[in-house]
Write a structure and sequence with these properties.
The protein has about 350 residues and is an all-alpha fold. The protein is built from 15 helices and three strands. Strand 2 and strand 3 form a beta hairpin. Helix 2 runs antiparallel to helix 3, helix 3 packs across helix 6 and helix 9 packs antiparallel against helix 10. The longest helix has about 35 residues. It is globular, with a radius of gyration of 32 Å. About 5% of the residues have low confidence.
Length: about 350
């Protein structure tokens, strides 16, 4: 299936084999063959424009940070101290010949491109809740780029991708497409021109989604003709994309047929409401952890705080040994202080009487 683009047939054959259920118990050569097959299926899905399927297929290999070893295309220098000469000899015998290698840079660029097309609109839709992440590898590249004190023109593959992602965050699809497709790595992709045309179309669509998610709160209504001109899409494509967003409950809006306008309903939560929800979630998390801690010590949080009288000795709303000891220690210190004060006053009175 590698030499063709019949991705659907290859996917069906892989699913019919049920190999995913037993691959963890297979021998190492079979695991290597399985990994290489999954990578080829992911790249095939990417060339056909199935971005979600390509990201899901390539995610396991790329997120492990050991794609070279998993594909038997080299040995990691970071693990040289973990294996002896015999193990190293066995692993070298498993290596794939060079003419059968999969370009790892092309593989990483394809995976990160899929992550960008999925993650940037997702970040715009959940801009007040960044806990939901689709690709941790993509976010890691963004954080590394933000740490750089000087940002120049993109040179490496990852710099091209980060620059494209930042342009898409601003809904600037032209800059995003020019920066992403300017890298020479795409010349190694089969049917490169068709893949570039597909990516350009995907960038337009995802930039439109990002723009609507980001600026929908600023509009009461907007014309699809304006959006079509901004993103170089047809009116039918604008209608199809936005209608799909409405059906998937991603956008609170409706079409006004007489005027052919998109009416936006401001049902999204404000920043204050999102922060309040996050605070409530964190407090709930702290409360659950506190209950688990008290249960492990044999203390019931509901019973102790439900006791209106609390501890009669301490006056606290819960009963525990450390609170009793603290209260008793405070009582002893207070009694000692009072006794010292009384002795001092008695000595002062005796001195005055003698005088």
């Amino acid at each position: 299936m590698r030499s063709t683009t019949r991705w659907a047939q290859g996917r069906d054959l892989m699913l019919m084999s049920h190999l995913q259920q037993s691959i963890s118990h297979a021998d190492i050569p079979t695991k290597i063959l399985h990994n290489r097959t999954m990578v080829q299926l992911g790249l095939c899905a990417f060339r056909k424009g199935f971005i979600q399927h390509a990201h899901t297929t390539l995610n396991e290999i790329q997120s492990s940070q050991k794609s070279k070893e998993l594909l038997a295309q080299g040995l990691s220098t970071q693990r040289m101290s973990e294996r002896n000469l015999e193990q190293e000899k066995i692993e070298k015998q498993r290596q794939i010949p060079f003419h059968m290698h999969i370009n790892l840079e092309l593989l990483e660029y394809s995976y990160l491109t899929c992550a960008m097309l999925l993650e940037v609109p997702h970040m715009a839709a959940h801009q007040f809740d960044q806990r939901k992440k689709l690709s941790r590898t993509f976010h890691y590249q963004l954080r590394n780029a933000d740490k750089s004190p000087l940002i120049g023109p993109p040179d490496s593959m990852r710099e091209h991708l980060v620059a494209s992602a930042k342009a898409m965050m601003k809904a600037d699809w032209k800059t995003c497409a020019d920066t992403l497709l300017a890298h020479k790595i795409w010349s190694l992709m089969p049917n490169a021109e068709e893949v570039k045309a597909m990516l350009k179309q995907k960038i337009k669509e995802e930039s439109l989604r990002t723009y609507i998610f980001t600026y929908s709160a600023c509009y009461d209504s907007i014309s699809p003709l304006v959006l079509a001109k901004m993103f170089d899409l047809t009116n039918a494509q604008i209608h199809a994309l936005i209608s799909k967003m409405i059906l998937n409950d991603e956008l609170k809006a409706s079409w006004d047929k007489p005027t052919d306008l998109l009416i936006l309903h401001r049902a999204e939560s404000t920043k204050l409401q999102s922060l309040a929800k996050q605070t409530a979630d964190k407090l709930m998390y702290v409360m659950e952890n506190t209950e688990k801690m008290l249960d492990s010590r044999g203390i019931s949080l509901g019973t102790t705080f439900g006791n209106k009288g609390g501890n009669s000795a301490t006056g606290l709303p819960w009963q525990s040994s450390w609170s009793n000891n603290l209260y008793q220690g405070n009582n002893k210190a207070t009694t000692t202080t009072e006794a010292t004060t009384t002795t001092t006053e008695a000595t002062t009175t005796t001195t005055e009487a003698t005088t």
